[in-house]
Amino acid sequence: GASLKKVIETKQFNAFITVSKNEAEKQAEASLQRFKSKQSKSDLDGVPIAVKDNFCTKDIKTTCASKMLENFSPPYNATVCQRLLDAGAVLVGKTNLDQFAMGSGTVDSIYGPTKNVWKCKADSNDFHIAGGSSGGSAVAVASGVCFGAIGSDTGGSTRNPASYCGVVGLKPTYGLVSRHGLIPLVNSMDVPGILARNVDDVVSILNAVAGHDKQDSTCLTKPFKKISNYCSRLPPANKMGIKGLKIGIPIEYNCEYLSDEVLDMWDEIAQTLQNEGAIVKEVSMPHTQYSIVCYSVLNQCEVASNMARYDGIEYGYRADDDHSTEKLYAVSRRTAFNDIVKNRILTGNYFLLGRNYEKYFNQALKVRRLIMNDFDNVWEDAQLLLTPTTLTEAPLYSDFIQKTNRDQCAFQDFCTQPANMAGIPAVSVPIKLSKNGLPLSLQIMGRNLSEPMLLALAKYIE
Ligand code: GLN
């Protein structure tokens, strides 16, 4: 009850698209009864959690922040949502995002932008962006109204807003958490992400949602072993030795637009880890710089194909134009998608033309392989990698939307995107406040399924 009230009261940040008041109240009441009869289901029983509005929720609107799905209520729950409900969690609502998760700011939603909670003045027109595309989920956590939130991460959409909002954001290993019911962006890179105030809370949520799901054929079949909150591979953080842990600093992440403040913080933490016994050394991952352009080709090709399902016939927005079926498709799609979605569909179809396929799509797949090889090679020298998450603190909304290229993946996703190419786990951890009083974060990456070790180091530095 208190949490729902807070959700409603914190409307000024525009973190939620839908507050599922009735359902949440019922779930909370059931949880209370279980508690009274000492039958709580898990450590998440009764705990308020928010879900990004690109995860299907049974009979609750799932809009992707787009006019196309403005009135769409799915007939089933995404696996992630179902597992949270099974653990007793209370799903308080659906959070704001960039339309169809395309973006890095949570500024391109038909419901308006989400505001960062940090230094936010309720009466001001300008504010710091929340980052994106899971900005609503990050703000639901940072504002204190939810214990945790589910986001999605294709190129950084969980870690980027986590970094700007000062919360922990985990992109799990590809296939560790089911994508069933997550509306796809790039099928081969999408993963549900987890946002919470600290690493232990992330672990609790991961333990509830991870593991094989027969409804997602790309989900790993290996049984998932729950991670102990005092992460198993390293001793508890309070008396931890990180002695001998090999941490790589990939020099290519020191890129053109990295702010001095982030660079200094990165240096400082690397130095501290070294002083405390880790073996910290520079490593090279020469194909990092190609990740963004390679991603944009693969993303646009997959978007072109994934968006074909929205034709205004079976579900989604239907235009009021019945001159011909063709016309109905065209007008529905033209009216209901924003320019970013339309641009990606057009470019993707261009890349996929018979005469271009080899030159763009196949070429991008080869570059992806080189980026993955960089990771395979680096694990010979390092167990974990330490990098920035975002290049700066959260930009001001007025600056962010003025950039001539609104589709700013190149700048925003530089450090986060490579992990999606390789499918590996990565976590963003808040470190300190900038001179302006905004959160600054670092990212840790590890090899596939190294979550226990990754999260142990995250806990050590948080
Ligand atoms: N910014 C990237 C994009 O717009 C990544 C978004 C995401 O991870 N969902 O595609």
From TrEMBL:
One of its GO terms (molecular function) is ATP binding. It is found in: Mitochondrion. One of its GO terms (cellular component) is glutamyl-tRNA(Gln) amidotransferase complex. GO terms for biological process: glutaminyl-tRNAGln biosynthesis via transamidation; mitochondrial translation. It comes from the Eukaryota. It is an enzyme of class 6 (ligase). Keywords: ATP-binding, Ligase, Mitochondrion, Nucleotide-binding, Protein biosynthesis. Its EC number is 6.3.5.7. It catalyses: L-glutamyl-tRNA(Gln) + L-glutamine + ATP + H2O = L-glutaminyl-tRNA(Gln) + L-glutamate + ADP + phosphate + H(+). Pfam families: Amidase. The active site is at 52 (charge relay system), 133 (charge relay system), 157 (acyl-ester intermediate). Residues 1-455 form the Amidase domain. Gene3D superfamilies: Amidase signature (AS) domain. Belongs to the amidase family. GatA subfamily. Subunit of the heterotrimeric GatCAB amidotransferase (AdT) complex, composed of A, B and C subunits. Allows the formation of correctly charged Gln-tRNA(Gln) through the transamidation of misacylated Glu-tRNA(Gln) in the mitochondria. The reaction takes place in the presence of glutamine and ATP through an activated gamma-phospho-Glu-tRNA(Gln). This is Glutamyl-tRNA(Gln) amidotransferase subunit A, mitochondrial. The lineage of its organism: Eukaryota, Metazoa, Ecdysozoa, Arthropoda, Hexapoda. The gene is GatA.
